[in-house]
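Check the record.
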Amino acid sequence: MKHELLLLRSLLVASMLVCGLILGNMLGYSGNPVQLASKGAAATVTGCALPQDGVMCLRSGS
């Protein structure tokens, strides 16, 4: 029983340490954020866009 308690306690301490390091890294990050979506002309999709009613149009002749 003593070994299990020691294992659970060390697992708790390790997980709290990892969570603390991740939180500290997120709060202290001072670099530029990564931009995953493009802007401008490259962001426009060729073909038809999704209209307001949510029904997609079909392209023919591919």
